[in-house]
Specification:
Length: 221
Amino acid sequence: MAHMDTVAVATMPSMMGWGVIDLLLVLAMWGVMMAAMMLPSSIPMVMSFASLAHQRRVRRLPCAKAGVFVLGYLAVWFAFSVLATLAQWGLLEARLLTPMMVSATPRFAGGLLIVAGVFQLTPLKRRCLTRCASPIGFLLNEWRDGTLGAWTMGWRHGMYCVGCCGVLMALLFAFGVMNVLWVVALSIYVMLEKLLPRERWLPFAAGGLLLVWGIAVATAP
């Protein structure tokens, strides 16, 4: 988190006139932040992968294959970081985001909350969450041998997790991309979604809360 704060401070002064250095700094900020937020919730999947690789007696160390799996997973979140960086630039140009990386208007912040709330209630959310939060089921269905196979499985797991959590990450634009409390809260929520029992009541509860919150923020005088 301290590293992310350092990157943020470095990028703030020139946010409204981006050059190549600004772009790379913001991309680095997003990349580090996504890794810090999403790696903890992937630990059960990575441990299950290493265990299954050991049972299948892979020729190379299971830990090495697990490392390749993680790299594939992080590659997807890096691609997401590229999109988030471009989105941040566009929102700054449209004056919807301040140079301090916070929503410039209550309506925009409320709109993000409403969109996230609606998404929490969709079949796509449930489908991606099921794949993202069920390590054994995912690995048995998606297993591929070899180093390329480990990368591919990590990449596919990352795609499901982006499908599950990507819209929630957009909420960082509502209350501050570098708001540490907001970052921690989202990280904890993502982990709870994956770890709580299979009834999956949490996404529905969160969706309802986000909808009410978004309407309240967007319509506040």
